[in-house]
Amino acid sequence: MTRILVALALSLVSMAATAQPWPSKPIRLIVPFGAGSTSDIIARTIGASLSKDVGQQVVVENKPGAGGTIGAAEAARAPADGHTLVLGTVASHGTGVIMMQNVTYDPVKDFAPITLIANAPSMIVVHPSVPVRTPAELVAWLKENPGTSFTSAGPGTTAHLAGESFAAKAGVKMVHVPYKAVGQAITDVVAGQVKVMVYQLAGLKGHIDAGALRPIAAVSAKRIAALPNVPTIAETIAPGFDFAPWFGIMAPAGTPRPVVQRLHQVIVKSLETPELKKQLDAQGLEAVGMEPDRFTEFMKTDIQRWREVIAASGVKTN
Length: 318
Hints:
D-Maltodextrin-Binding Protein, domain 2, 2 domains, 12 helices
C-alpha cells in the first residue's frame, strides 16, 4: 500500500511539473546566421515584440555556418518544450539541406513550423568603385573583368544560387567568396575588397542609403517596393528569374501543439501592429504570417522547387 501511495505521489508531482504554464523561463531564439544578417534583424525585431507579449525574455543566439545548417541542427536537438525556437530560412530549411553534406536533420519532420514571418527581397549590389549602374552595364563590365569575385549570405543560400545563376544566364564568370558570417562579407564589400554582392535588402539598405553600396538589380520576380527604380534581373537579363528567400519561426518537432498555436497567434498579432509593420517595411521585408499547417505544406513544396533549381543551375553541392 505504501508503494502505491508513493507511486501515486510521484505521478502527481510529474503531472504538476508538466502542467507548468508556458513560458516558465527565458526563450532561446537560434539564428543560423551571423550578427547583421537579415535573419538576425528579423529575429531581434520579432524577439523584442514576443518578449513583451509572453512575459519572458527572448534571447537571440547567433549560430552561423554551413548555409544555416549548423544553427538549425542545434535547434532540432533542443528539448521540445517551447523554450527553444529557430529563425528558419529558405537556406537552413531548403537550399542548405540540399547542398550541404552531413546535414543531421530533416527540415520538415524534425521541426514544428509556427509561422512564415516574411519574404525578403534580394538584390545585386556593387562597391561604388565599380563603374556600372544598370544590369546591362554590370554584365558588360564582368565580361571585361572575368573571374570577378562576389559574395553572398554563404554557400548553399538563395543569394549564392542567385549569383551563380545570374552569371550563367548572363554568360559571365564570377568566383564566389564564402564567409561564415554575412556581417563580415558586407564589411568587405563596403571596404571594396569584394566588388559584388547578392543579398537581402534588409541587410544592405543602411549601406545603400549611405552611398557605400550601389544597387544594380533585384533578383526577385518583381521590383522591390522600397527601391522602385531598381530593375529586376527578370525584366532585363533573364525572364522568370526569381530567387526570393523566406524566413519563419519554428520549434523542435514534438513541441506541444497549444504552445505552437499560442506562439503563432502572438507573432501574427505582432506582425499586424503598425509599429512592427513600419520596422519591417523600413527593411524592405514583406510580412506574411502563415498558419502552422500551411507553413509545413509550403516547405515541402519549396524544397522540391529548390531541388529542381539547383539541379538546373549546375552548382555543385559541398
